[in-house]
Amino acid sequence: MTTTRMKLATYKDGSRDGQLVVVSRDLGPAHYAAGIATRLQQALDDWNFISTQLQDLYETLNAGRARHAFAFDPRQCMAPLPRAYQWADGSAYINHVELVRKTRGPEVPESFHSDPLMYQGGSDDLLGPCDDIVCASEDFGIDFESEIAVVTGDVAMGTAPDAALESIRLLMLANDVSLRHLVPAELAKGFGFFQSKPATAFSPVAVTPDELGSAWHDGRVHLTLQSQWNGQTVGRCEAGPEMNFHFGQLISHLCKTRNARAGSIVGSGTVSNKDWSRGYSCIAEKRAIELIESGAPRTEYMKVGDTIRIEMLGTDGRSVFGAIEQRVVSHA
Amino acid sequence: MTTTRMKLATYKDGSRDGQLVVVSRDLGPAHYAAGIATRLQQALDDWNFISTQLQDLYETLNAGRARHAFAFDPRQCMAPLPRAYQWADGSAYINHVELVRKTRGPEVPESFHSDPLMYQGGSDDLLGPCDDIVCASEDFGIDFESEIAVVTGDVAMGTAPDAALESIRLLMLANDVSLRHLVPAELAKGFGFFQSKPATAFSPVAVTPDELGSAWHDGRVHLTLQSQWNGQTVGRCEAGPEMNFHFGQLISHLCKTRNARAGSIVGSGTVSNKDWSRGYSCIAEKRAIELIESGAPRTEYMKVGDTIRIEMLGTDGRSVFGAIEQRVVSHA
Q: Would you say the ipTM is above 0.85?
């Protein structure tokens, strides 16, 4: 099997879909992919043909031989897919589900260990890694959620988990912002999350699974996801071992009754570890732990001006995806 | 205010997005829009500029002066948007909600009269009007749902209902197929519909609100939606008066905590009337009525080979959107 290695980003250019950029392994130099494809969706629509050309450019760039390279700047990035045809977010770390449910009351049913939770998210307005979290009110209970997400090719209805793994084209980090105080009333209506899930942000670059090397196995990313809230590291969670459903299982769940088309984004849900000393990837977990330990949550959700930074280092100690770095601002 | 009148369709051409076609008012002749825009999303992305050119072609076509016109064939149609960045389906006819809930038990809370139900649907693989409903098992409880849907332009977070009405670019019919027997377990998980909502189908043409003339007012379509199941008319439901939330309210609900971008599809939910003699727009309602009247549902859900036809006639007695005509087939 041939390997496909590359890192891709989408630069802001005033258009809705931005400009596809190939980024070097060390996130140093970058190069417009304009001669190959202008938009990431275009590459995903015709992956076998276009990805080999992008990989050639990636190798040239890494070798320092790309003629029109420029210094990569995450602040110029849109989400790798600024708008996508699908954003389906699983909740594959049962520990997260158990903790968050504790604050709302309900026990986690046994079936949750065999049947993944997944919600359909809005995908028409995805945020770049340094875009503001715009929120109408702090009273909504603004929370970050540090996650991993994959981008798929075409997946046919009924595809089994192992075969579904083969459809994964790219991986990204995600900040699946939640408005916690809107959740209980919304879920009580029975139709799932809607207003409680504002726009999701994604990492500066999307990388191919092969790019992760040995850290990508069993359909999971075996690296540590770091979350820094207002400059303080609050989470160093292992993304691999405690992911109860691997990405192939999540994609297979998605495709049980329908096809998924190229460019579908599928999320892991909040990365969470049973060992509380590893910290948290969302504030709701911290509050749940406080509730368990001392009878009441003490930590408040994010306020206007708060920052969140989400990053993952490779086995070489370097940033794999670049960092999501967002600030909460008030909706005018 | 200038009026914008036109009917648009998307023809199958082997590509993911198809070819944009302008269709005459009587659904007779049609014409490729290739010189203006190739895809409907492209027109939506730049509506003010492109729609005037499309309207010119529409007028030329209606006048019988278009040089390369051909006979419109709904069987060649993809969904007007074969893949969309958003498909958010409301449930604006409370009568439907009340009936369907009766079969599951829960009462409809008072808040449902002021706070719309809405779920985020999959939008990466939308079906053309004559595409098969492919289903892995009849045991899933295959049901049609006859609906109206709008396509929006850009709508900013926090837009009020009346202003949101101005963002409506196009209207379509939809068949929001549901797998009823998967619904209770899925909703019990708390994250809303997912596997219970396979691919949605849309009418052959999308029309501008102005095209409906006086039948479009108060953010509602004041016409009769017909549903024929296996050739028998089972529903002639008035779409206007009993739509508890108008489309501007639905769009405003969608935009409470985020922006909606051009090409977002927003659905009405199953069209439903209190007067049972008008019939039904989904089988679940028929079963609910049977339950109420005789203690048990008798009508079974759709079987392989069943057909569903959904159409709406204008005040002139002519088909406004063309007909959705689908057949249930077994997933190989």
A: yes
